[in-house]
């Protein structure tokens, strides 16, 4: 398969609306992933070796008996009455607007809808995160100056 055929395949997959296509032939493997907009996002081409090497089984270590996990259900029930404030983006979480200023909120702080509870830095931009609910901060789930992921819980709020 030459480069022109691969480019035509990418265009075809983008127009078809498929999100992922994998094609395996004798001497290579192609994976094409597309975005919702229909444009091809990533193409992986892996050349397969012509002769297969003999495989040797790796020695297997004995597995220890599993340890019984601690009960998690009571903690989940305890936190179910609280509302979770989640990160709307990926970035670095800060509890203060600047190093010389006080924290936005502490455990026990009462917040109203629209109050700024933290700042998340993403690509050198500091984004103020506002509370979507009113209530009392029960727990802060992230340390200051820590990286956070999209939809990661930041705070637990008691709405009562």
TrEMBL record:
Pathway: Lipid metabolism; fatty acid biosynthesis. Keywords: Biotin, Fatty acid biosynthesis, Fatty acid metabolism, Lipid biosynthesis, Lipid metabolism. GO terms for molecular function: acetyl-CoA carboxylase activity. Pfam families: Biotin_lipoyl. GO terms for biological process: fatty acid biosynthetic process. GO terms for cellular component: acetyl-CoA carboxylase complex. Gene3D superfamilies: 2.40.50.100. Signal peptide: none annotated. PROSITE patterns: BIOTIN, BIOTINYL_LIPOYL. This is Biotin carboxyl carrier protein of acetyl-CoA carboxylase. It comes from Flavobacterium cauense R2A-7.
